[in-house]
Design a protein that fits this description.
By secondary structure, the protein is an all-beta fold. 0% of the residues lie in helices and 52% in strands. It contains no helices and eleven strands. The protein has strands spanning 4-7, 10-12, 18-24, 31-39, 46-51, 58-60, 68-73, 78-83, 92-100, 105-107, 111-115. Strands 2, 4, 5, 6, 9, 10 and 11 form a seven-stranded mixed sheet that branches. Strands 1-3-8-7 form a four-stranded antiparallel sheet, with no helix packed on it. β7 and β8 (78-83) form a beta hairpin. The termini are far apart.
Length: 117
C-alpha cells in the first residue's frame, strides 16, 4: 500500500504561479513512476506530468510544456509540480499518481486548482 498526500492547491490569478506537493508513504525505490493528472468539470481525467523517481525522466502533456515543471526529492519521498503562467483552462482537480514496481497504481484524494481573476 502507498498513501499519497497532496498539498498546495488553491485560487490563483491568471498568469500566476502555484506549486503542488505529493508525499508518498513508502520509499521511492518501490515507485516506477509518479506524477499528476487533472480532471476538469465535465471532462475526463488527463495526464499532466510524470517523473521516474530514480532516473528523473519526465513526461509532460503538450498543453503544459514550458509552463509546468515536475521534480522530486527522493529523501522526502515527495514529488512537486511547479505551475507557472497559469491559465483559466488549467482549472481542475489535480490528482497525484504513483505506479509501483509491484504493478499497482495509487491515487491521492485530489486538490483543487482554480485559476480566476
Amino acid at each position: 500500500q502507498v498513501q499519497l498526500a497532496e498539498s498546495g492547491g488553491g485560487l490563483v490569478q491568471p498568469g500566476g504561479p502555484l506549486r503542488l506537493s505529493c508525499a508518498a508513504s513508502r520509499s521511492m525505490f518501490i515507485i516506477n513512476a509518479m506524477g499528476w493528472y487533472r480532471q476538469a468539470p465535465g471532462k475526463e481525467r488527463e495526464l499532466v506530468a510524470t517523473i521516474t523517481p530514480l532516473g528523473g525522466v519526465t513526461n509532460y502533456a503538450d498543453s503544459v510544456k514550458g509552463r509546468f515543471t515536475i521534480s522530486r526529492d527522493n529523501a522526502k519521498n515527495t514529488v512537486y509540480l511547479q505551475m507557472n503562467s497559469l491559465k483559466p483552462e488549467d482549472t481542475a482537480v489535480y490528482f497525484c499518481y504513483a505506479h509501483t514496481t509491484y504493478g499497482n497504481d495509487y491515487w491521492g484524494q485530489g486538490t483543487q486548482v482554480t485559476v480566476s481573476s
